[in-house]
Design brief:
Number of helices: 10
Order of helices and strands: HEEEEEEEHHEEEEEHHHHHHH
Strand content: 15-25%
Region (Disordered): 216-238
Signal peptide: 1-24
CATH topology of the largest domain: Protein Transport Mog1p, Chain A
Keywords: Signal
Number of domains: 2
CATH architecture of the largest domain: 3-Layer(aba) Sandwich
Biased composition (Low complexity): 216-237
Radius of gyration: 23 Å
């Protein structure tokens, strides 16, 4: 039985051959022979729309949602020109992606023609990312946006990839004001794995290939150009945007706190300052939420430790200005807004990261 679909729509989908039932909780997308499960990484499948009859080549639209956190829309395009494409660099794919990327903002501004929605914007150019699928990573075009829903700013992300001779496009929109720690990464990569395998375990994430942690070294030139006092120190390995990222904000921040405390113990305060600067400098324009949280976590944690040290044990010495609380607050707000957060959301992000940073500092060692 097909669930959660009106009978009329279900009959239409079956008649077109685009989607047909396989199990009680699955839909079989016949052109790709991919089974779409009821739930993927906590995202629940909602309605399915057949676009092929009205717009040939546009295939099917599948809507998902994670209550109180995200809405998501998956498109699987069937245009015959896609089958001839060997990679994302194919001219037809490049043009199709460019139009889709532009339409995100056009539709956002038309949907809410207000002064606020005019501020909807892209966060930097398209990035070519690698979904950690098996047996090989899956290349994706990834685009990041700030859009307005009900007058409130929120994040929007679009991932585009090729699989099984079809073009897959996923729009992921965060519910405005959501405090859910899920970044949606497991959902995106789970869908990518599904598009390769055709079916998967109910959560679609069990087979994901762990991210490999490259040997990373701090970008010295970027660190040197970062604002703040210069401190000389030995080269320090710093986290980059390609490093492994834990799956929740709490674990990401805790890992960042441990990294910065280790740098301080091994190499001293100047090295810790340079590590924090390099972490910010390594963020792409527009930021990546997961990596930004790590940078903020180590910054807040180390400044807190430093503040306590200079108050209690180093009373006769001057604390580096970079680590003072007023400068820290200004820096955290600046970095968050650079990543696309509003002032209010930047403050909320800082408070949430600080909570997890303090919990990590209080952890017995």
């Amino acid at each position: 039985m097909i669930r959660r679909l009106p009978l009329l729509l279900a009959a239409l989908l079956l008649a077109t051959g685009l989607v047909s039932p396989a199990r009680a909780d699955d839909f079989l997308h016949q052109p790709t022979n991919v089974r779409i499960p009821d739930t993927i990484a906590g995202f629940v499948r909602k309605d399915i729309k057949d676009l092929e009859a009205s717009t040939p080549g546009h295939g099917v639209q599948i809507n998902f949602a994670k209550e109180g956190a995200y809405t998501a829309t998956l498109f699987i395009y069937t245009d015959a020109r896609i089958r001839a494409a060997a990679s994302l660099s194919d001219e037809f794919i490049v043009q199709a992606h460019r139009l889709s990327a532009e339409q995100v903002l056009t539709i956002a501004k038309l949907r809410e023609p207000t002064q606020r929605s005019a501020n909807s914007r892209r966060l930097g150019p398209t990035a070519i990312t690698q979904a950690r699928t098996t047996p090989e990573p899956t290349p994706m075009y990834s685009d990041f946006y700030i859009v307005y829903l009900g007058g409130r700013a929120t994040f929007d992300k679009m991932d585009t990839w090729l699989a099984r001779g079809h073009l897959w496009k996923l729009r992921l929109t965060r519910v405005p004001g959501s405090l859910d720690n899920d970044t949606g990464t497991d959902f995106v990569f789970g869908l990518a794995q599904l598009s390769i395998d055709g079916q998967c375990a109910p959560d679609c994430v069990a087979k994901l290939k762990p991210r490999e942690v490259p040997a990373a070294s701090g970008p010295a030139s970027a660190a040197a150009s970062a604002p703040g006092p210069t401190a000389t120190s030995a080269p320090v390995s710093v986290p980059t945007t390609t490093a492994a990222v834990p799956s929740t904000m709490a674990t990401r921040v805790a890992a960042a706190v441990e990294r910065i405390l280790k740098v301080q113990l091994d190499s001293g305060e100047p090295a810790a300052i340079e590590t924090i600067k390099a972490c910010y400098a390594a963020l792409p324009t527009g930021g990546m939420a997961e990596e930004l949280e790590g940078c903020l976590g180590q910054d807040i944690a180390f400044a807190t430790v430093s503040n306590g040290m200079y108050r209690q044990a180093l009373k006769g010495q001057t604390q580096p200005e970079y680590l003072t609380m007023p400068v820290l607050r200004a820096r955290v707000m600046t970095q968050s807004q650079r990543a696309g957060y509003s002032a209010a959301d930047s403050d909320l992000l800082a408070r949430t990261v600080a909570k997890y940073a303090f919990e990590a500092l209080l952890k017995p060692r």
